[in-house]
Amino acid sequence: MRVAVVGAGSIGLAVAWRAALRGAEVAVHDPEPGSGASRVAAGMIAPVTEAHYGEEALTPFMAASADAWPGFARELAAATGLDVGFRDVPTLVAAVEDGDRAEIDRQSDLYRATARAVERLTPRAARKVEPLLSHRVRAAVLAPQDRAVDPRAVHSALLAAVEVAGVELRRETVADLRDLDADQVVLAAGCGSAALGDLPVRPVRGAVLRLRAVGDQPLPRTTVRGFVKGHPIYIVTRDGGEVVVGATSDERGHDRRTGTAGAVHDLLRRSIELVPEIAEYHLAEVSVGFRPGTPDNLPLIGRLDHRTLAATGHYRNGIALIPATADAVADLLAGEERPDLAPFDPLRFKRTAAPRETPPVGPAPAASGHRPDSNRVAENAAPQRVAPSAPDPSADHARERPAPSIPTEPAAEEARP
Amino acid sequence: MRVAVVGAGSIGLAVAWRAALRGAEVAVHDPEPGSGASRVAAGMIAPVTEAHYGEEALTPFMAASADAWPGFARELAAATGLDVGFRDVPTLVAAVEDGDRAEIDRQSDLYRATARAVERLTPRAARKVEPLLSHRVRAAVLAPQDRAVDPRAVHSALLAAVEVAGVELRRETVADLRDLDADQVVLAAGCGSAALGDLPVRPVRGAVLRLRAVGDQPLPRTTVRGFVKGHPIYIVTRDGGEVVVGATSDERGHDRRTGTAGAVHDLLRRSIELVPEIAEYHLAEVSVGFRPGTPDNLPLIGRLDHRTLAATGHYRNGIALIPATADAVADLLAGEERPDLAPFDPLRFKRTAAPRETPPVGPAPAASGHRPDSNRVAENAAPQRVAPSAPDPSADHARERPAPSIPTEPAAEEARP
Most buried among A96, B384, B388, B393, by the most CB within 10 A? Predict the structure, then answer.
């Protein structure tokens, strides 16, 4: 069977890898592999602390994927010799102010509903687990099994793995899925899936900071998450001294630059409030990406027609869902039944919309672009529930552009006249 | 007369240019022209709002240099065809909180002592002059003649001007002034002057942000300065949509990276407080430089010996003092008397120290490097008055390294698979 995968982000590459290992002849099409959300993401594998109200249908899939990650990482390492930075440290969720403490209480109920390990900690106990936590922290929850990988290392390893597995990587743009010479087509183009597959995927913009400890500065031992004046923040530390802080969330269009000053300010303020040591680090990079959001925040995984499958719309959870998505799509390609994927049916919105007399047309609210009357980045806004809609005419702009990723290491040489 | 200038920052290049125009045969030595403070600076020419208590001896020199700038910029443009971004817009100093309002009152007295135009404004009048000023501003002062240039454009134009004037640029390191084959030597090596000339110049670290307006975002019409919880902040706008925000000030050693996260946070917080629109811009670059500070904050301009002149130690005022310094040094090279330069005598500290029984030895407090007990960037600390001291043994690290200047414009192409 000849399979064409559209999109060489980490989802597309993982699907290609798994399909090739199961005997398919696979080609992946992408003019710029990894230019999308894959290399901006922070890499949390957090079935507990990424649980959200209204997204309960995702819980078993997130859990299965989290449990599959250690083995998936080992397989990737064995196939390529590359480490993906899987980090077996717990996640701590903390709050400073009263309102945020109440938010932690609400979240705890949600966390417990995942039926995975969750532990309420006193502030003193929390600082024992994470000595860099602010002394002002008043409430904390520990999720011992919420872990993290390095998404850039994952993407690099997947690129190597597909090559080893004999997958062909075609660095070219696909304008129309019908142009592809293949028995089966997998659409894994992130935000670009909207235009290519007539799917309700919208870009949800997010800024992420990469900091670097200098010299012997102490580093967080855990992944630290929290709420600061109602805004979520996370701090993911990697072996080697990189500290990733994320993420803003807005739907102000497709520009990677508008409002990054405000986004950086907000991310630094919130992360410094939880972990004051953050202020001592070097701000090495600001990157902006676009999460492929869907109307119900659940991914689009399943058949579009007899020849086409979708593996897209992973919103905040792309990295976490790599192993489960890759195996699910490989199963579907092999003709296996996967009734557990029903909540992710990519045609679920069209089926709902069918009885309507007059389906709404025009650009989805998510793609309305710059709002000149807004005086602030609309950060962490609740995901907009987009009504079933006609294809978004502006969605062809939605595919991510190369991230403005800016290593800021100074040159090592001294310069003296 | 053969003149060797050590240092191809803007001071060194301007001295070389003026000396060459007056007939000298000039060579400038620098392995990396413009790698120091010249291209980090914001470029304010602000004899009023850069006035500081204890630095009154600088007032006439700052005034003369400010008055010389328009002609100097025209001459540079005529010689090179390059524009230096001289911007004839006023400077507004504003405050939000009561404590900062009191600071503005104190500053106003100092500003008036410069005998240049100063105007107290009501908040309403201030917002008429600068519509982007926060509605929370409670006090403001206008300095109609404090202006700005683009220091990078200035440095580029000076590089072109010295070439036109026949100056030789030698991209090589000078280890010892005695190695130079010249009749006269001008030491203009910024922080590197400490080791080369046995001068009390210490690096005062500062971070500066370069933001960029996106699309049709409105820009400040004026240079906005202010005090936010006692910390000074400035916002300099250039034609073309660049907005420069500065600057932090600390003496935590020679690393360009330590604490840039905290520095960026503080600069954004303070600038957004005065001009909320800042949050909407793109954070295009973070750069860190080292101001060449002196014990009394006054520059070192004058004779070191019969063959050697100093033109260094300009601290915060390097760009503002380019024309006056260049003409002063050209006068001294021509054998003219310049009694007005007496306060800047580069040997003034040695003369004071001479009668001492036991001159203090060891590293100056300013160069004590990283303070592990400090939990925050010591920003905007009052300049340390360093006692007359022996040469700082750590000063040979003080010469600036290339700035981690990070253009973050995304690539223009759309990428779609």
Answer: A96
Q: How does pLDDT run across A335-388, given as a tens digit for each residue?
A: 999 999 999 999 999 876 555 444 444 333 333 333 333 332 223 333 332 233
For tokens 């909407």, what's the residue? B280
| Closest chain B residue to A28, measured at CA | B417
In a domain, B176, yes or no: yes
Q: How many domains does one find in chain B?
A: 1
A71 occurs within a structural domain: yes
Extended beta strands in B96-164, E state = 119-121, 139-143, 147-148
B305-326 pLDDT per residue, tens: 999 999 999 999 999 999 999 9
Identify the CA nearest to B286 among candidates B317, B318, B245: B245
Residues of chain B with C-beta less than 8 angstroms from the C-beta of A277: 375
What residues make up the domain containing A77?
2-344
Q: Nearest CB to B268: which of A7, A189, A261? A: A261
CA distance B2 to A402: 52
The stretch B243-258 carries a mean pLDDT of: 92
> Tell me, what CATH number does A123's domain have?
3.50.50.60
In this complex, the residue of B29, B260, B403 whose CB is nearest that of residue A282 is B260
For A399, name the nearest residue in chain B, comparing CA atoms only.
B416
d(Cα A330, Cα A15) in Å, to the nearest integer?
A: 7
CA distance B189 to chain A (A): 7
- Residue B48 to residues A65, A341, B52, B111, B175, Cα–Cα distance (Å): 63, 69, 9, 5, 39
pLDDT tens digits for range A190-240? 999 999 999 999 999 999 999 999 999 999 999 999 999 999 999 999 989
Q: Is B36 part of any domain?
A: yes
- Find tokens 């070439």 and name the residue: B163
- B402 found inside a domain: no
pLDDT at residue B374 in the model: 31
Per-residue pLDDT band for B253 (boundaries 50, 70, 90) equals confident
